[in-house]
Specification:
The protein is built from 11 helices and 17 strands. With 392 residues, it is of the alpha/beta class. The chain folds into 2 domains: 138 residues, Beta Barrel (Lyase, Ornithine Decarboxylase, Chain A, domain 1), CATH 2.40.37; 234 residues, Alanine racemase (TIM Barrel). Helix 2 packs parallel to helix 9, helix 5 packs across helix 6 and helix 8 runs parallel beside helix 9. The longest helix is centred in the middle third of the chain and has 22 residues. The chain is elongated and about 75 Å long. The structure holds pyridoxal-5'-phosphate. Pyridoxal-5'-phosphate binds next to strand 9 and helix 10.
Length: 392
Amino acid sequence: MDRDILKAFLENHEVTPSYIFDTDVLCSRIQQIQNILEDKAAVCYAMKANPFLVQALSGIVDKFEVCSPGEFRICERNGADMSKVVLSGVYKNPMDTIRTVEVYGDKITYTVESRTQFELLKECAVKTGKKLPILIRLNCGGNQFGVDRETLEEIVRKETTCKYLRIKGIQMFSGTQKKKLRQIEQELQMLDAYCTELMEKYGFYVQELEYGPGLYVSYFTNEEDESETQLLELKRILEGMRFRGEITLEMGRFIAAGCGTYVTSVVDIKEIEGRRICIVNGGINHVNYYGQTMAMRTPRVEQMPDRNGETDKYMVYGALCTTGDLLLKQFPLTDVRLGDVLVFHDIGAYSVTESMYLFLSRDLPSVYLYSEDTGFELVRPARPTDVLNAIR
Ligand SMILES: Cc1ncc(COP(=O)(O)O)c(C=O)c1O
């Protein structure tokens, strides 16, 4: 986020810690993805990366990967285009699933991660008289997700003529932060060959492949942003596929990371045995850069306001009572004073959802959305967590 915009924000909003999600940056990111990939793939936003972006993305992404009843309710409340929802997730509880099918029926797509889920969806379809479109999630790497080939093929063999479920295709996601496109290429080649095999063996035509590439995001100061190269390479891989159905790329981090900024204030400065220490009012309970533990790597961080004077290296800790709450190691700060703000960039994905918010019962940061047209909008005020951590 632009320094002048942040300056204006800090002059008018004294509450830190806060997240700011810039929806202009978010929209440009989607445009970049769509411009490079052209019509080679549809774009699905995996909302677990940051649910606050659903509304802004509703008109511009093709789908939302929604993994829990809570995420589903967020889509409903935030006016998302529900026809774009792919209801995913390793646990689909019967009560919520039947309600979803009753209300949305075949307008949304459902993933199947087990025989149990297949039967549950079939039951819901029978009850409501709706034929539900499904994607079967193929396991990758022996974890708990999806089904193995044997189960997938058994479903395909027995159920392609099922009156209640329409098997549209396959979903697969094997992991995040893949630095090497080679792994993505191998996975897509495997899926490509598998689609041919399913046709040859069972006469089953895969109409749709929904694949999460887990594209890499460069968070740290010694890394170059390689987004464009990654997308061009991905396009080349997609062009090399024989598969002629629809390909959808499920992405979270790659879409959301760059639009987020986190601001936290310096609340104490001290020296312990010659080591300079700076304490901020946020901490690792709000900040989650994949691959950063104990500040071993330095994310992009700025000090505000601009100061002239001595620059010294500080250990920057958060406000949690754990030695693990180290945000930055030997980080240069210039004439740092109480009330100065540290600005963490590229925080748009997973920090707002995956951090350890309840530890020490500190407040949840406030959340703002920003765009040039609408300015800053407070979409969640800071919230206490002591109410969640106590008997009453
Ligand atoms: C099924 C599924 N699809 C897509 C994603 C998004 O991954 P990423 O944030 O690496 O793009 C995830 C992340 O956990 C996922 O579980």
